[in-house]
Specification:
4-stranded parallel beta sheet, two-stranded parallel ribbon, alpha/beta, single chain
Length: about 270
């Protein structure tokens, strides 16, 4: 195989709640695997890297929307800490290091959805750790009910607010980012990838019910450790430097996620 011009590093554990329960698992996998990958890249002379980071590096931001220059607060979870550490490693390699690495760090907000064709989507192993697959599995009857963790936050309806980006828009940003890595003037660049808008958990539920025609059975539970109250992105820099912008709305992402879930159900019925 090869030679390779660059690497896009997606692989990591990503469940905030699980990281609180099993922090060592997250440090070993997320940080350890990056170090091994960087050593392997160095051994083979590969110098361009696109890294999947996360908005969790911002912790609970002081002001919204967050920009790439917003200060990094204390991470609210071990998962967030692993992304902070990984970013630090990559930035250190660009500061006088003998490694000629060009890295683009993409701070994802909350990826959701599936391919519009319904042929490719998210398939969690075991109970989902993220909101939208739990919503679709509840609507499909796989889960009895959905728990909304906390309704006493200082938001419009009391539930957490996130910036939900369609996974297809996210994928397109990676293509642009890999090209950017090859032409970087410096050693690194950082971009927020979101929609620039925040939606609450209840808004996501309401929108899903509207686009799917399904009524969700959900209950209110206590706050979940590791969750920040609200966060959403400024994406001005990505739009300017990558020539990229989101093409899909929240309703599109939820409709596509539901189509994917129905595709899975049809496959199971056929088997």
């Amino acid at each position: 195989y090869g030679p390779f011009d660059g690497v896009i590093h997606f692989a990591a554990y990503k469940a905030v709640g699980e990281s609180v329960k099993e922090p060592l698992k997250y440090y070993h996998n997320n940080v350890g695997s990056l170090v091994v990958l960087l050593q392997t890249m160095q051994n083979h002379g590969v110098t361009n890297l696109v890294f999947s980071s996360s908005c969790t590096v911002y912790g609970q931001p002081e002001t919204l929307p967050v920009t790439e220059k917003s200060p990094l607060q204390e991470a609210a979870s071990p998962y967030g800490y692993t992304k902070q550490v990984c970013e630090r490693i990559l930035l250190d390699l660009g500061k006088g290091s003998s490694v000629n690495l060009k890295s683009v760090l993409l701070r994802y907000f909350n990826p959701i959805g599936a391919h519009p064709s319904g042929a490719i989507g998210e398939l969690p192993l075991g109970p989902p750790e993220n909101l939208v697959p739990y919503i679709t599995q509840t609507a499909a009857g796989i889960r009895d009910s959905l728990t909304v963790f906390g309704d006493d936050y200082n938001t419009s309806d009391g539930t957490c607010v996130r910036d939900y980006i369609h996974v297809v828009d996210l994928a397109a940003a990676h293509v642009a980012a890999l090209a950017k890595a090859a032409s970087l003037e410096g050693s690194s660049a950082i971009f927020n990838l979101g929609t620039g808008r925040g939606n609450s958990v209840k808004e996501v539920i309401d929108t899903f019910e509207e686009v799917s025609g399904e009524k969700l059975n959900y209950t209110l539970g206590p706050r979940r450790p590791g969750d920040v109250e609200q966060i959403y992105a400024s994406v001005d820099l990505a739009e300017k430097e990558l020539g990229w912008s989101c093409q899909y709305e929240l309703s599109d992402a939820l409709k596509h996620a539901w189509n994917w879930q129905k595709t899975l159900k049809l496959k199971e019925s056929a088997e």
